[in-house]
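Entry:
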Amino acid sequence: MKTYRSSIFSFDTLDLHNFQPFLVARMLVCIGALLLAAELTCGFVAAPAGRLWQYWTPEAGVSFEEFRHFCDKGESPHVWFIGDSTAHANLVPIVFSDQFGGKVSAWNLGTSGNFPLAFQRTTLPLLEDGSIRPKLLVISLITSGFLELGSNVKSESAILSSPYCQKQNGVFLLGDWSYLARLRFCLGALRLIKQGKDRSIIEGRGYSSTSGSGSGVAELPNSAQARLSSELSPPRLEVLRRMLTASKKHNLRLVFILPPSLENDIRRAPHQSVKAFLETQQEEFEFAIYDSWESSYLQREDFFDRNHLTTEGAKKFTHAIGELPFVIESLQSSDR
C-alpha cells in the first residue's frame, strides 16, 4: 500500500541519505544564469536613464545631471537659480543670459517641494562644497515653506526618500550594484527620454514652463489658513543660516527673493516673518533681498496660480531681477 509523508518536517523528508549534490548544483547554476540574463537585460534597458534613477523626479535628475556635466567640463554657469518651485517656474535662464548680451550663463536648479529640510540635502551641499563658485546665487523659497505644515513635510519627504538623498545619509543602495534593483526607479526617466522632454529641459537650462494660462487660484482650507500665522520653524531657519554661511565662506554673491504672490492676507504673516529674519542677517552676511510679493509690474494674468508665474510672467520677473543694481554689480565683478 502506498504511503504519503504526513509533513514536510517528517523524518522521511529530512532524510538526506538520498541527497544529490549534482542536481542541486545544476539548479543553482540555472538560477544564476537566469539572474545574470535578467541583470544584463535590465542593464541594457536602463542604460539611457544613466543616474536619473537616483533623483526624486526625472525632471530634477535631468537638470542636476546636465548642470554637473557643465561643471565637470569647467563651464560652471555664472548664475545659479536655486530653491523650490517658485525658482523653477519663475526664473528663466535664457532671458537672463540674453539680457546681458549672452556673456552671462545661467542655470535653474529649482525643483518643486524643495523646501528648507529638503534643500539642505539637494542643493546646500553644492554651496558648502565650494569647489564650484558662481558669480551670483539667486534663491527663491516660498515663505510658507518655513512653517511646520503637514503639506511641507509631505513634499520634503518625497525628496528625502529618493536614492540621491539616502546616499548622503550613508544608506546602502542595492541599486548601485544591481540594474534589477534600480529598474523601477528608471521607468519615469525612460518615459521622459522617450517623449523628448529631457531635451526641452536642457535647452531651457533647467527651466521648463508652466502649462496653461494664468490666474488659476486655489484657496487654502481653513485649517491651513490658521496654521499659516504660526511661528517659523527653527530647524528650517537654521538651513537658511547654513546657506548664508556657505555663501560668505566661499565669497558668493547672493540675492534672496521673496517670491511674488497674488494678494492673499493669510500668507502675510510668514512673509513678514521671513523678511524680518533675513534683515537681521544682512549686516553679517552681506546679501540682497528682493521683496517681489506685490510687484506692480506683474498683473493677474501673469500668474499661473497663486505663487507661480506663466511663461510670459516669468520672463517679466526674470528681467526685473536682472535690473537690480546688486545683480549688475555682481556680474560685472571679475571674481568667481
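Residues 72 and 132 are 10 Å apart (CA to CA).
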